[in-house]
Amino acid sequence: MSQPISAYATEKRFRPKRAPERASYDKALVHAILDEALMAHVAYTDEAGCPHVLPMYFVRDGESLLLHGSAKMGQAKAARRGAAFCVNVTLLDGLVLARSGFHHSVNYRSVTVHGVPEILEGAEKTRALDLTVERLAKGRAAEVRAANAKEFKATLVLRLKLEQVAAKTRTGGVNDEPEDMELPVWAGVIPLHLAVGAPIADEQCAPGAAAPSLALTGPQSER
Length: 223
Known about the structure:
The chain has helices at residues 27-36, 74-80, 122-134, 140-143, 149-154, and strands spanning 23-24, 39-45, 51-61, 64-70, 85-97, 105-115, 118-119, 155-161, 164-170, 188-191.
C-alpha cells in the first residue's frame, strides 16, 4: 500500500529564490499555516495586463483553497478567462531588533500558492459557502439564514488547488555582525500574536442569544 505524499512537488519556477533555505514544501507545515491564518492577499492581472492584489478571507478545504467574493468583481472576470492567480498568506510572529539597521527583520510564517482557480457552482458552491461560515464558528452554518437565490447568484466562489505551493519561514533571534556585538544597543525579539477579544453583541441581537464558540486555531485563539 502506497504511503501518502507528505510534500508538494512544486515546480522550480514557483520555488523561492531568495533565502531558499527558509523554504519548505511540507504539507503538514503548509496546512498548519493556512489553518491559522484568516486573510490572504490574492493577486491576478486583468485583461489589460494591470496587476491587482486584494485582501480576502479564505478557507482551506483539504488540498484546495476556497475564496469567495462578488460575482461582478475583477477576480470573477479573470477566473472566467482562465487567468493565473497567486495567493499569499503571512503570519507575523515577531519583530527582530538587531544592533544594526541592516539586520533588523521579522519572524514570520508564510505560504504562497500559484494556479488557475475554478469557479464553483451548484451543490459544490453551497458546500463551500457553508465552510466559509463554519471556519469562523463551528455549527454556525446551521444557525444562520442560508443565502437566498439573489445572494447566491451574486457570490463568486473560487477553488484553487494546492499544487504549486511553497511555505517560507523566519524564526530565531538576531543575526548581528561579530564586530557589533559590544554595541550598547538593545537587541532581541519582540513576539507578536493576534488576540481574540470579548464578543460585542449587536444592539438588536435577539434576547438570550449566546455568542458562538470560535473555530480558530493557533495563537489567535488565546485571550
